[in-house]
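Worked example 2:
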Amino acid sequence: MKRLLLLFFSMLSLTSMAQNDLKKTSFTLNEAISYALENNYAVINSGRDIAKAKQKKWETTAMGLPQINAGLDYQNNIELQKSLLPAELVGGNKGDFVEIAFGTKHAMLARTSLSQLIFDGSYIVALQASKVYLKYYENNKNKTDIEIKEMVINSYGNVLLAQESIAIIEKNIASLEKTLNDTKQTFKNGLIEEESVEQLQINLTNLQSTLQYNKRLLDITSKMLKINMGVDINQEITLTDQLDQLTAQNLDMTLAQNNFEVKDNINFKIATNFQEQKVLEYKLERSKALPSLGANLNFGYNAFGNQFQFFTSNQKWLNFSNVGISLNVPIFSSLARTSRTQQAKIALDQANTQLQEAEQKLKLQYASAKSEYEYSVEDYLSAKSNLKLAERIEKKQQIKFKEGLSTSFDFNDAQRQLYASQQKYLQSMIYVINKRANLETIISK
């Protein structure tokens, strides 16, 4: 009995875990954006860039901290180097020389060194540069997030557009099939010409072809959305927002009335990072004219012998230690240092000019995006009004056509006008959503 209960609870636990592992498959637009900002491939890698930049910053900081190194050197003198000494020093004849070998066959050195940078102008600049380096990748991550948000909004809207187009076309096909069947009956009774039936058949075939195209388009746009979100393209997801709801949410003219702050734009921040980089490069070249000061401490042991017995108790080790300070003072470089400094100064002037240019271009982009968004709202309201008119006209022409008061050509024109108005209305909604997203991207909201 206990085993059965244990097995039951184990299976219950596994079932619960399996349910927790199920991925979310339905998304509102905001949920799709949030999911993409965590799972999009570019977002993930931009986060890794920040992690690398943080490690790079510490690498630079560590250059000015104490450095400890240890080593072990072994030398085997296969043939000792010989020198000549006057023979009389060893009891020989004056004027003769004897060969003397100095050293031992084996030598070993165990050493440890401690070094510390005391002052170096380039190190100070490097610390400042590492902060700018990190700030650049943080801004780049922010830019990636903003771009991914706009991409998800656009692709989410395109999926809804394809779905709405399919729904409207299927509704039109159903309505046209009914009209075609009624017209065929009227033709059989001899009350209408065959040309009217053929014209409706052509319209129906065109609608069916358009339907198949939009179904294929839905598959492509869905896969594009999944890629932007970081979802496997074979995984099924459901979009819970409606196109008309999103359009209503994006009808906010106050957004276009706010003052545009260029300094808040992410591209301007990145351009500022580039200008700061040139400032630091200029400071780096100037810092090379300053002295540098460092200190070091060395400690070690030497051992010698004609037999390899360094790791025995009989081996004698001779210790040594020293401490030193190193001062390097640049004096004259034949104006090479001055030339590099001037090059850095010119590059800084160029960066300043590019920053000014970027500011003016961003102001122009904002004005253009603002104008396009305002037009998209006006175009949407116009398309919505025209669609209602087209629906009334088509309905009237359909009634007249069935009663024999209107020709098939007049009815066909009314249908084409209705279909065009339907697509125009759908496109105007997407236009509002996309242009709102583009405006928010420039504002970096």
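Residues 82-115+301-328 form one domain. The chain has a mean pLDDT of 89.
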